[in-house]
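Tutorial handout. Part one gives the primary structure; part two gives the three-dimensional structure as tokens.
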Amino acid sequence: MQFISAADLQQHLDWDSIIDALQAMFVEGCEAPVRHHHNMQLPGQADATMLIMPAWTAGKYAGLKLVNVYPDNSQKNLPSIMGGYLLMDGATGAPLAFMDAAELTARRTAGTSALAARYLSREDSSKLLIVGSGRMAMSLGHAHAEVRPIKEIHVWSRTTEKAEQTAEYYRAAGFNAEVVHTLEEGVRWADIVSCATMSEQPLILGEWVQPGTHIDLVGAYKPTMRETDDALVSMSKVFADTRDGVLAEAGDLLIPIANGNFNPEGISAELAELTRGQHPGRCSENEITLFKSVGASLEDLAGAIRCYESYQQR
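Part two.
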């Protein structure tokens, strides 16, 4: 069995590769049960979450991700996401590789956002606002730049120092990047707004969002969490990575549904329908599109297979 580190994943699963692998897997499909989601109470700190995510393609590959999300790890200078991914032979069940789950998760999550943006954002989108400053914030800019001509990146975080570190990271990568000090300013400026936070209160308000904007929501992974208000959800054309996933876990949609401000049938399409050409995605330059992702085991399996096959050819 191979051990594939975070560095190996970065080398063998570049942004073009992960987006193409996700596209192919959403088109072809696989068996991907809704993930197990377990709350873990911790003394003296915020609750953690254990996620168990299986997926398989009949007779080819099977995979299982075990990941723990510890929100307070940032205060200890530790990643908030830790865990591992086991890739197996789908015909025999034999283990093939064990991978760093945090890096795989970051790359497949950002890749999924970029894949959705390929269908939902304006083709000329060049201004990206990143909301958050954790590990995902370091991936979203690169992924979106793979599918759109991103020239400028603005970053907002509750902690200005962390926002500046993220902006400096993107400047070093060749982007025109800077910190924005008010979210309203950043949202009104952006073509694409990409949020990766653990907020339990709305951050992005509908009244700030300009016609033609694409909203990408990859944080807020519990029914009690949200990054947007009811108004934004109501005024947007809404899409999901998977309907089952977002309707089980996504507070950004579940809270407006409970408030009577959104109907589950208002989800225009899920990502498989977009990739298969069953829905056109964005239909006008002025409409506001919203993509909600909670993560699906299909995405992990797609990335793990692509990385493993590339690693074997090294």
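Part three, for discussion. Residues 121-295 form a domain with the Rossmann fold fold (CATH 3.40.50.720). The CA atoms of residues 130 and 137 lie 6 Å apart.
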